[in-house]
Design goal:
Elements lengths: L3 H4 L8 H26 L9 H12 L5 H30 L1
Length: about 100
């Protein structure tokens, strides 16, 4: 980020609004996200860094059986991916129309 200091105007950081935005970005979006990420890593074994991929390969290639909770988790992950993909596509269409 240091090279950006030479190209962009960061004088807005000196205002109260700038400090508030910086604290919000630093504390809420980064610190809380990393905290939750680290807490989540405690529940995912190191042998399964990509649970959706490995579970899917295990089911379809090896014939592994999953519990109902695992299928619900896979469904929620796929639903989230679909929602994010559709939302991104709609934004791209709206921008192109302008």
């Amino acid at each position: 980020m240091l090279p950006f200091l030479f190209w962009f105007d960061f004088s807005w950081l000196g205002s109260m609004k700038g400090v508030t935005v910086s604290l919000h970005l630093g504390i809420l979006t980064i610190a809380v996200a990393y905290y939750l990420f680290v807490k989540g890593l405690k529940f995912v074994p190191s042998s399964q860094p990509l649970p959706l991929l490995w579970r899917s390969l295990g089911v379809f290639l090896v014939g592994e059986r999953l519990s109902g909770v695992s299928w619900i988790g896979i469904g929620l992950l796929l639903f989230g991916i679909i929602v994010l993909t559709l939302n991104t596509n709609q934004r791209g269409i709206k921008k192109a129309e302008r």
